[in-house]
Amino acid sequence: MGRYLLTLRRFWATALASQLEYQLNLLIDLVAMAGNLAGSLFVLSLFYGPGRSLGGWSWEAALVVLGTYTVLDGVASSLLRPNLSTIVAHVQQGSLDFILLKPIDSQFWLSFRTFSPAGLPEIVTGLGLILWAAVKAGAELSPVRCLATGLMLGASLVILYSLWFGLATTSIWFVKTWNATEVLRAALTAGRYPISAYPLRLRSLLTVVLPVAFLTTVPAEAILGRASLSTGAASLLMATVCLLLCRGFWGFALRFYTSASS
Amino acid sequence: MTIAKGLRIARVLLSSQYAYMLEYRAEIALWALSGVVPFIMLALWSQVDASGAGPQALGLNRLQLSRYFLSAFIVRQFSIAWVVWAFEEDALQGRLSHALLQPLHPLWRYLSAHLAEQATRLPFVAALVGLFFLLQPDTAWLPSLGQALSAVLAIWMAFAINFLLQSAIAILCFWSERASALERLLYIPYLFLSGLVAPLEVFPPGVRAFALWTPFPYLIAFPAQLLSGNPLTFRGGFAAMAAWIALLLPLVGLLWKAGVRRYSAMGA
User: pLDDT band at B1, cuts 50/70/90?
Assistant: First the structure.
């Protein structure tokens, strides 16, 4: 365990040092974040006309969901995208061999090798939006509730990671599944809005097949004090199942890995 | 260049690019699938409509809403451009040097690649549209010949604007290696103002008036309205598109001339 933590610190320190060489990128990321957030707020506001609301959620409550989405998006651009998009290249060029030979877990190496500060502004803004909107919506931020929210947010991150990694794993067979993650990203934009705003048929699809409900709606419900114990338990269960499946799938896929040009 | 020679070049370029794109049909199918955003938004807007506020609140009834978003999906599929990425890769890998030596403007090659990719996309998009009608049979409609022709023309013009916008950004590769970051920034107003996530009818009047001064609503909302047969809320849509093309075309030409002079092959 200690070895992994030490490795992680080295990974991220070097990644950060090399990323900070490109300061203009940071500015572009900030502008992109502001633009995206403004656009999302604008679209959300369109749903709140006279006598209209989104799935029975008040404006402030819907903002909490948007904040959760922003946090997840930030984590995706900081950790998931920079790391998991390289799996395809490793398979294609055969450099996955070197990673498998290292005396460290290959999934760990592939998932946490680098870190991009690009998503940090989004994570901070998202967390700020969650807290601000939750207070505005009249939620009491007791320590227990904050703890529960953190737990739900953690579960949603695990689910997101598992989905993404599982999809990236398929590149062992199909090599070029780079845009499969693009499809996932597009489908996940459904998480910008509370799940109850969708038609009934789609709701079950977005809960079980593509667990968008657990990604953003459940953490938002947790901080607003609307989540029941069973939803929380379901979310934790979903996260555990997803993680185990993704772990097992990686092991299974590696059995089919034959290296490049062989 | 005589017309016959031009036609021959076009035929060879298109058929070779089409053969190339067919190799990547699985990837292109996934790209087509990654355009699901209009369907997500349709699901949301249809619930607003059903929640009792009534169609007046939106200015569109359920059928019109479904047809609008389906049309928006189709328009996006056939007006998308990716010159920036292809150009950036070619410039970084040094392939651009070869293209520059040929007696043909490199942008023609990208144009033919786009057209070939659209042809490869066609069956997938048709299948998705078929699936949509299967799930919601009452939304099926057949545009009249006039509607269909004007919609096709509008989609082509939207593609031309997209292509020129992206080409202009791609040419900035000659000055900076971060042209794709600029494209990322351009995508943000495109996403929110083009009508991809919400029909223009529901925009507040001020925002709508502002949006109409940008090229974005003409890239999705205007062709989608034509295709869906919904009441048109644009005045002079074609004229505005022609104006944008007339503005962008010389700009791309000028940028190209200035850029090529700065070009020093990567890795040379």
Answer: low
C-beta atoms of A54 and B44 within 8 A? yes
* Cβ-defined contact of B26 to A183 (cutoff 8 Å): no
| Amino acid identity, position A191 | G
Over residues B157-183, the mean pLDDT reads 87
ipTM higher than the 0.95 cut: no
Give the start-to-end residue ranges of the domains of chain B.
3-262
CA atoms within 13 A on the CB side of B175: 12
pLDDT in the model for residue B268: 45
Q: What is d(CA A64, CA B78) in angstroms, rounded to the nearest whole number?
A: 36
Please answer yes or no on whether B30 and A46 come within 8 Å at the CB atom. no
Among partner residues A42, A47, A190, which is closest to B40 by beta-carbon distance?
Answer: A190
pLDDT value of residue A177: 65
Residue by residue, what is the 3-state secondary structure of chain B?
CCHHHHHHHHHHHHHHHHHHHHHCHHHHHHHHHCCCHHHHHHHHHHHHHHHHHCHHHHCCCHHHHHHHHHHHHHHHHHHCCCHHHHHHHHHHHCHHHHHHHCCCCHHHHHHHHHHHHHHHHHHHHHHHHHHHHHHCHHHCCCCCHHHHHHHHHHHHHHHHHHHHHHHHHHHHHHCCCCHHHHHHHHHHHHHHHCCCCCCHHHCCHHHHHHHHCCCHHHHCHHHHHHHHCCCCCCCCHHHHHHHHHHHHHHHHHHHHHHHHHHCCCCCC
CB nearest A32 (choices: B36, B43, B184): B184
pLDDT band for B267, please (50, 70, 90 cuts). low
Largest CA distance in chain A: 64
pLDDT digit string, tens, across residues A153-188: 999 999 999 999 998 888 888 766 667 778 888 888
Among B185, B190, B186, B197, residue whose Cα is nearest residue B37: B197
Domain limits of chain A? 2-254
Q: What's the token pair of residue B234?
A: 């644009």
Chain A interface, Cβ < 8 Å to B? 24-25, 28, 31-32, 35-36, 39, 42-43, 46-47, 49-55, 174, 176-180, 182-183, 185-187, 189-190, 193, 197-199, 202
The mean per-residue pLDDT over the stretch B36-56 comes to 77
Average pLDDT over residues B155-177: 89
Q: pLDDT tens, A57-104?
A: 889 999 999 999 999 999 998 999 888 888 888 888 888 888 888 888
